[in-house]
Specification:
mainly alpha; globular
Length: 102
């Protein structure tokens, strides 16, 4: 299970629309952007909201995240292996096409 609650990071509900997520991100980005606020702690927070935005505005990444995976932790083929951010259903769908094997 991902350790960061991306919905909480952006201050939106789990059923927030893409537009609501974008508005929340823009509001926070204006406050936390490194050009506006050079504090190192603020820069880390900016990276966190950017990661949340990246996951929650991409339908595939959001679905993976909602199912308990962390699409950013398993990216770029790093680590690999069963369970690295993928549910059992995702693995089975990859092998058997999602409609069941015959």
């Amino acid at each position: 299970m991902p350790t960061t609650d991306y919905y909480e990071v952006l201050g939106v509900s789990r059923d927030a629309s893409t537009d609501e997520i974008k508005k929340a991100y823009r509001r926070l980005a204006r406050q936390l952007h490194p050009d506006v606020n050079p504090d190192p702690g603020t820069q880390e927070r900016f990276k966190e909201i950017t990661n949340a935005y990246e996951v929650l505005t991409d339908p595939g990444k959001r679905e993976m995240y909602d199912l308990g995976g962390d699409p950013l932790a398993s990216g770029n083929g790093a680590g690999g292996g069963f369970g690295a951010g993928f549910s059992f259903t995702d693995i089975m769908d990859a092998f058997f096409g999602g409609t069941g094997a015959s």
